[in-house]
Amino acid sequence: MKGADNVLELAPALNKKPAKIKLAVKDINHMYLSSNGKPTECLKDINLEIEDHKFVAIVGPSGCGKSTLLNIMSGLIKPTTGDVFIEGKPINGIISRIGYMSQSDALLPWRTVIENVALGLEIRGITKAKRKVIAKELIQRAGLGGFEESYPFELSGGMRKRVAVIRILALDPEVLFMDEPFGPLDVFTREKLQDDILKLWQETKKTIVFVTHDLAEAITLADRVILMTSRPSTIKAIYDIPLKRPRSAVEIRFEPRFLDLHKLIWNDLRDEVIEPKGGLDIAR
Ligand SMILES: Nc1ncnc2c1ncn2[C@@H]1O[C@H](COP(=O)(O)OP(=O)(O)OP(=O)(O)O)[C@@H](O)[C@H]1O
């Protein structure tokens, strides 16, 4: 009888489908050669699997290779050795299933908001009427209604970031790579944009890989935080962030579990970010 009970207890676990691996990084090593021919060993033995629909944040000390890893994962640069796979297929170069947002918003100053948002669709050959409909809807959803005909210089920093995000979303990528997208903004604008990203993930459940130097931002947004060591950079630890969703960027920071996670990861991060000169290089 006890055996039968055990079978019943196990049944839900057995029936549960294993999570689909969206991205796999296998045996990545990366070396840069400086202009004088001196090598910089950047990434060492990186292996990583990212499940579909997960939000993953990468943190680590400045200059450890976070952007390099993101650029390799998104196909922007080829690693010295190793491979990246999307659903088991190797990524060689830039593919349309992937969206990438860099530290700068990269809006075209001579184009209006709606023209910027529609840019990728235009490159893909979508008709003018259709791109207008898609761009307008995204602009409304981003709370930018009324600014369709404005130029980037007429927008605040936060608004520009929102335009940059929806320009990528217009192409409906399966995986979104974001490299410190909110870096230079003030704390209130960052929190607002973090809420936008939380909402975006809640609505679309896209796989997101997000690089940040801000540990609190990583815990606020992610399901999983990857901690990298200083150079040559390896993966030091991976933490699950079991905070319930939907989340609020402002509220979540007062939750005791958030503070516990922050303390736990910060303790591991501290050794990596204290530079020989003694300077701290990460936002707590
Ligand atoms: N194109 C390049 N040529 C030579 N060296 C490079 C190049 N790009 C990056 N590096 C070096 O590789 C290392 C990792 O750089 P990377 O930008 O990936 O780090 P990061 O962790 O994203 O840094 P940060 O947090 O400061 O943005 C640094 O030492 C950097 O100087």
TrEMBL record:
InterPro entries: AAA+_ATPase, ABC_transporter-like_ATP-bd, ABC_transporter-like_CS, ABC_transporter_ATP-bind, P-loop_NTPase. Residues 23-255 form the ABC transporter domain. SUPFAM superfamilies: P-loop containing nucleoside triphosphate hydrolases (SSF52540). Keywords: ATP-binding, Nucleotide-binding, Transport. Coiled coil: none annotated. GO terms for molecular function: ATP binding; ATP hydrolysis activity. This is ABC transporter ATP-binding protein. It comes from Pelotomaculum isophthalicicum JI.
